[in-house]
Amino acid sequence: MIGVIDVGGGLRDIYGAGVFDRCLDDGILFDCCIGVSAGSANVASYLGAQHGRNRTFNTEYAFRKEYMGFEALLKTGSFIDLDYVYGTLSRAAGENPLAYHRIRNYPGILNVIATEAETGLPRYFTKADMSQDNYLALSASSSIPFVSKPVMINGVTYFDGGISDPVPIERALALGCERIVLILTKPADLTLDGRAERRVANACERRYPAVAAQLRKRAEKYNACVLRAFELQALGKCLIVAPDDTCGVGTISRSKDSLEALYQKGYKDGAAIKAYLQNEPVAQ
Description:
The chain has helices at 14-25, 38-47, 53-59, 70-76, 82-89, 100-104, 136-141, 169-174, 195-204, 209-234, 256-269, 271-277, and strands at 2-6, 32-36, 109-116, 122-125, 151-153, 156-160, 179-183, 238-241.
């Protein structure tokens, strides 16, 4: 079984959108798809065979006041309004509907990762947790503390999946993946120092202590999992697809030229996946 993991990264994951569009053009369908945070949005559009959909979300919709910004924060309490993203835009009657019927009929394994606010543990949502116009699992996976409000599903509050399982290599292996394509949105040799995570942890400590504890460990877990991916890559069991630079794009930064450049970088780098799956030599 061949799996793909997209670790997310906010707007920076337009890189992953480019990678998946290349996979669609190359006729690649993975047996297992795992999405974290913005990576879950890319996976959903990929399984919906909606080429260019997430490119549009990042380069066009993200510049709307309803989608993202201080006006959205004042109106909704979220700097990025996930209700607008996965409701207004993505529902069947919306401006850019998600092709849910294709996701429902996908024959493989889908995992969308979120973090339980009370326990700090990862929750692995599946197709069974989604239905037409009910994309709360996708919203939960992308709810970054202090950027978006947490998402409640069946009485449980969730935050971004990258808090608890930032690079779910072990999850893919546990699901039976024999080879893995790992999509990162930062250079693969970049190690995190955890400073940003500690600041957020300090801010949410009182209300969400379990989330704060996970945030303080996130950088260490991210670095260890990427190292594990390099080990698997040396054995031919993993292909790491990552940008050599982020073109100046950050989690919530918005520059159309930079976003487009990062998308094109992802589309180009995605060509390595076909060669990997065909057991051809891949330039590292």
